[in-house]
Amino acid sequence: MRRIAILAEGSLEWHYGKTAVGVIRYAPDTTVAVIDSTRAGQDVAHALGAPVGEGIPVVRDIHEALHYEPDTLLIGIAPRGGALPDSWRWQLLAAIEQKLTIISGLHMFLSEDPELSAAAAQHGVTIWDVRRPPDKKRVAEFRPHREGSHTILFVGSDCGAGKMTAALELDRLAQSRGLSSSFVATGQTGIMISGQGLPVDRIIVDFVAGLVEEMVLDVSDRHDWVFVEGQGALNHPGYSPVTLGLIHGSAPDAMIFCHKAGAMTIEGYPHCPLPMLNRLIAINEEAISWIRPERSCKVVGITLMTSHLTEEEAYEAIRQVQNETGLPTTDVIRFGAAPLMDALNQHFS
């Protein structure tokens, strides 16, 4: 078990700090401190305004974090473009001097940075670039999954819509019900949590579907329920290719749709409005039918992110979405994943 300090300077919030939040909430490792000088002196729960990371201190810099005896420094942001902020470099060098392992999910590989790699070599430090893709190249073969297994893909209206969270919560619930299930990580945070998976947004596009297919075939041979973490969104102007590769590679038997309550545009694209939910659901279902017209794949439930709403507002948002789509809807964090697991069981019965 690692003792992790998370570097999330200026970004300890729900969207750009989603890596930090995900690791705190789900990783088996212990988070001992979060570095964010703009929120120093609080604990994580107070900084987020939610019951996540109670008692974990938010500190000013790596020197303060070292008082809590971490053995690992983890980069806790998911910035657009995946670069390391220049102002963070000194903190990584200080961590390396103290022999902390470095874990990074950035697109920039820290192990290839001359200054950081030289420091790591000098101090005997390991740098784990989580987004480093496998060397293997594989084109999808369109092979069927094991009969009796159920592959569930989590799709959504945008990045940061709760796809990983929903997949992890359903996997937890399935296992608590005695079912044979597994979470399949496809992004940096999921890999940090589970210790395995594919960084699909770093794989050459020709091989995304093939490598995802291979991974899902392997997991579905060993488990009855396979919960595949989604990435991006088909309607996203920047990240739709990875979503399509995941859909065709995982060839799901059903999908769960993820959405932030009240969202009207793509995050960071104010001139890119979101279609109606039923249209968004339809395009994901249609994308499966392009390669498998003889067997449809349906969205069987919806999870909403409602952390920005009061409980009364959250219930109302869920009611509105259920009325609009006719599908079981919940916030898996606030109200639990049972409605979605029940819907999946009914769908396959």
UniProtKB/TrEMBL annotation:
All residue ranges annotated as the D-glutamate N-acetyltransferase-like C-terminal domain in the record: 148-341
UniProt signal peptide: none
Gene3D superfamilies on file: NAD(P)-binding Rossmann-like Domain (3.40.50.720), P-loop containing nucleotide triphosphate hydrolases (3.40.50.300)
The D-glutamate N-acetyltransferase-like N-terminal domain, residue ranges: 38-133
Superkingdom classification of source: Bacteria
Protein name: EBNA-1 nuclear protein
Species annotation: Tengunoibacter tsumagoiensis
